[in-house]
């Protein structure tokens, strides 16, 4: 596709921003035209639309600018940078969908293999890179959900010294970290998190709970000093924290009591976003069965959030 012809600079009525098309179906005025959609004689790139599952003007223009999802982005990047029989070195504490892509899909369909490493063990990272074969070092700037911080300047230096491209998932979050300034070659994001502006804000801490809490704002977090050395100023520590309820049953009980509180989102990572990881992979990533990832919402006061949360905990 020629993006120059597929993408319009202005809306259909001359507006600066593209018009948003709300219709799911489009008119076909003559029956003889319908078969031409099925044989690709009439295509969206030529301004011909029939049904939004195929394309509508809004989706087409967005698709010319960005991929459909973070996983589409990650897949595209890896398959572009790695040839068949290629090799990737990756963090052992990746987002579950990325882990599944590297562990199952790419080896089976693209003959691309991955070695997973502990990001804090820099010698392990160095030893895992096979010069002449490894083309990509892939990691999350902040691991999802366990919030392990990658020492991006040092890890990028190690990779670049061996001629390897560094790809960083910066979903948590572009406000706090700018990997491009720290040495990363390619940065990917999930638009449903901070960039969308719809669900996350800078949050306070829950330090006195008698539960294991993972939050970068706590002084006892092992990577807090590292984050401070790399972070953009005045953006705090992010709106993501984790609670370890120890068992999946307790995690589900807590989430049931908070169900309907739409401003704060939560999930039991081991049975949802990281469910495709086996027990050994979860242990390596430090994801326990009862680990809950919470995205603190921006509506309401901190006191309101805390009161509701205390009530839910009291019922466990």
TrEMBL record:
PANTHER family: CYSTATHIONINE GAMMA-LYASE (PTHR11808:SF80), TRANS-SULFURATION ENZYME FAMILY MEMBER (PTHR11808). Its cofactor is pyridoxal 5'-phosphate. This is Cystathionine gamma-lyase. GO terms for cellular component: cytoplasm. It comes from the Eukaryota. Keywords: Pyridoxal phosphate. Pfam families: Cys_Met_Meta_PP. It comes from Protea cynaroides. The keyword Lipid biosynthesis does not apply. One of its GO terms (biological process) is transsulfuration. Gene3D superfamilies: Type I PLP-dependent aspartate aminotransferase-like (Major domain). The keyword Transmembrane helix does not apply. Belongs to the trans-sulfuration enzymes family.
């Amino acid at each position: 596709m020629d993006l120059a012809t597929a993408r319009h600079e202005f809306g259909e009525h001359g507006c600066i921003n593209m018009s948003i098309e709300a219709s799911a179906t489009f008119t076909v005025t003559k029956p003889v035209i319908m078969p031409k959609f099925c044989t690709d004689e009439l295509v969206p790139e030529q301004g011909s639309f029939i049904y939004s599952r195929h394309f509508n003007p809004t989706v087409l223009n967005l698709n010319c600018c960005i991929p459909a999802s973070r996983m589409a982005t990650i897949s595209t990047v890896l398959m572009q940078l790695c040839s068949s029989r290629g090799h990737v070195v990756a963090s052992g504490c990746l987002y579950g969908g990325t882990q599944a892509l590297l562990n199952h899909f790419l080896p089976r369909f693209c003959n691309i293999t991955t070695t997973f490493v502990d990001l804090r063990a820099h010698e392990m990272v160095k030893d895992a890179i096979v010069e002449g074969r490894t083309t990509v070092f892939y990691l999350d700037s902040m691991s999802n959900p366990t919030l392990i911080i990658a020492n991006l300047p040092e890890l990028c230096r190690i990779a670049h010294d061996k001629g390897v491209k560094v790809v960083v998932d910066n979903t948590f979050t572009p406000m706090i970290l700018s990997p491009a300034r720290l040495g990363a070659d390619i940065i990917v994001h999930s638009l449903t998190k901070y960039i969308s502006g719809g669900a996350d804000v800078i949050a306070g801490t829950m330090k006195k709970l008698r539960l294991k809490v993972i939050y970068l704002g706590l002084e006892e977090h092992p990577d807090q000093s590292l984050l401070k050395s790399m972070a953009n100023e005045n953006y705090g520590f992010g709106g993501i924290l984790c609670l370890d309820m120890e068992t999946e049953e307790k995690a589900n009980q807590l989430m049931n009591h908070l169900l309907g509180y739409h401003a704060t989102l939560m999930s039991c990572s081991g049975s949802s976003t990281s469910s495709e990881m086996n027990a050994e992979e979860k242990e390596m990533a430090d994801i326990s069965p009862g680990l809950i990832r919470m995205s603190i919402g921006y509506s309401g006061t901190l006191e309101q959030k805390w009161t509701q949360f205390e009530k839910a905990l009291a019922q466990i």
